[in-house]
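Duplicate of #3305? Posting structure anyway:
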């Protein structure tokens, strides 16, 4: 038996990368999965790969009409029990080089999309006796990062909205939590899929490599499952230790830092 037998799950941004892997993992655990994205050909291909447990819908997460269609599709398949607000975009630029149009394009997907998703599913989840919402934020929703004004703003907002929703939805037995990944080996995290970018930038963190989609997916499935039945309104950081601090070569416990010429 799977952890999500008899349950319907919506995953946004499921056409590739992290969202596609999350959809696969839910299906492996018995869920019926509705994959939403705007990259229709890729999304349909992932759904076809998963098989009969998967349905693809066009879902621009900033569109109320698209959300209504996605939720109607999901509830037509069974009790809607899980939403993963995974869709996200990033437009790196210095503040003075960021246009209002570019800033709002990120906010509309990452922040407004999360808001609309939560608002759209809470009623069906309440009717189904409860559920779980997992919002994908970022370590940039816990710190500042130069060049990421719109992305960081949206991910901090996601973190805050998660707590508000957890407070409001708890009465309906709907849990809401956020996940904060570090670097992930996807098109967003490693656009050119360069092997050197899987380790090089991560030498100063405890686990000296980039994260993989399946590692983020495992955290998503945990928070969405009954195993996390007493967890709501919290943040789960999945970042290889990036936010714990920086390994300093030359100091006790610094270890060997590959590529930096230190052996301490």
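Output from current build:
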């Amino acid at each position: 038996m799977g952890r999500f037998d008899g349950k319907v799950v919506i995953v946004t941004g499921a056409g590739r990368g992290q969202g596609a892997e999350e959809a696969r993992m839910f299906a492996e655990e018995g869920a019926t999965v509705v994959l939403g994205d705007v990259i229709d050909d890729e999304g349909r291909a992932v759904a076809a790969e998963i098989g009969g447990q998967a349905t693809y819908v066009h879902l621009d997460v900033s569109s109320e009409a698209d959300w209504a269609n996605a939720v109607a599709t999901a509830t037509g398949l069974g009790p809607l029990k899980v939403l993963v607000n995974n869709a996200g975009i990033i437009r790196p630029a210095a503040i003075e080089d960021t246009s209002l149009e570019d800033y709002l394009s990120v906010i509309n997907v990452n922040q407004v999309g999360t808001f609309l998703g939560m608002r759209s599913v809470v009623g069906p989840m309440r009717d189904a006796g409860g559920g779980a919402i997992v919002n994908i934020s970022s370590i940039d929703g816990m710190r500042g990062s130069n060049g990421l004004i719109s992305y960081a703003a949206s991910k901090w907002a996601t973190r805050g909205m998660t707590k508000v929703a957890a407070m409001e939805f708890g009465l309906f037995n709907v849990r809401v939590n956020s996940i904060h990944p570090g670097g992930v080996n996807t098109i967003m995290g490693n656009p050119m899929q360069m092997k050197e970018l899987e380790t090089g930038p991560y030498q100063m963190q405890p686990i000296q490599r980039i994260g993989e989609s399946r590692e983020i997916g495992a955290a998503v499935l945990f928070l969405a499952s009954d195993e996390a039945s007493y967890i709501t309104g919290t943040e789960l950081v999945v970042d290889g230790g990036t936010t714990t601090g920086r390994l300093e070569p030359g100091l006790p416990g610094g270890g060997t830092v590959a590529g930096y010429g230190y052996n301490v």
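Confirmed duplicate; merging threads. The chain has one domain: 8-263. The radius of gyration is 19 Å.
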